[in-house]
Specification:
By secondary structure, the chain is mainly α. The chain contains 6 helices and no strands.
Length: about 160
C-alpha cells in the first residue's frame, strides 16, 4: 500500500513539474523569465532547501539520540537568526558591513552559531535533562512549552515585525 501511495505521489509531482515547465516555456517572448530570474530562482531554492535540510538533520539527530521530538528546534534556529539580524544592524550602522563584508558575514555566522548553541544547551539542561526517565508524554509536553516560551520571549525581545 505504501508503495502505491509513493508511486502515485511521484507521478502527480512529475506531472505538475512537466505541466509547469510546459506553460513556462510556451509563454510569449516578452513574458518569459530571463536568465537573471532563473539564476535567482536557483540560488534561492538551494538556500531554502539547505535550511530545510539543516533543520531536518537536527530533528533526526535529536530524535536518534534522545528518542524525543524537540518542538523548540525551530525556535533555536530562529534565535540564532534574530541575533544575527541584531548584530547586522549594528555592523551596518558602524560602517563595518560595507567596508569589510567577508569579516561581517563571518561575525554573523559565529553569532548565530553561538546563540543557537547556548540556547540549545540551556534548554537541554533546564527542560529536558531532568525528564530523561519520565513517561514519553512528559518531555513532549515540555518541548511544546519550551517552544512557546522561546517564541514569545524572542517576540518580546525583537518585536513581532522585525
Amino acid at each position: 500500500m505504501r508503495r502505491v501511495i509513493l508511486v502515485t505521489l511521484s507521478i502527480v509531482i512529475l506531472f505538475g513539474v512537466a505541466l509547469g515547465s510546459f506553460k513556462t516555456f510556451t509563454l510569449p517572448p516578452g513574458a518569459r523569465p530571463g536568465a537573471a530570474q532563473w539564476r535567482d530562482l536557483f540560488v534561492f531554492g538551494v538556500a531554502q532547501g539547505s535550511v530545510y535540510a539543516l533543520i531536518a538533520i537536527g530533528y533526526s539527530l535529536v530524535y536518534g539520540i534522545l528518542l524525543m521530538i524537540n518542538f523548540a528546534h525551530g525556535e533555536v534556529f530562529m534565535a540564532g537568526a534574530f541575533s544575527s539580524l541584531f548584530v547586522l544592524r549594528t555592523l551596518e550602522s558602524s560602517g563595518l558591513y560595507n567596508t569589510n563584508p567577508i569579516l561581517s558575514i563571518a561575525l554573523l555566522l559565529i553569532t548565530a552559531m553561538l546563540v543557537s548553541t547556548g540556547i540549545a544547551v540551556l534548554l537541554e539542561r533546564i527542560a529536558y535533562r531532568p525528564l530523561r526517565n519520565a513517561l514519553r508524554l512528559v518531555p513532549l509536553s515540555t518541548a511544546t512549552g519550551a517552544s512557546l516560551f522561546l517564541r514569545n520571549t524572542l517576540r518580546g525581545f525583537f518585536g513581532a515585525a522585525s
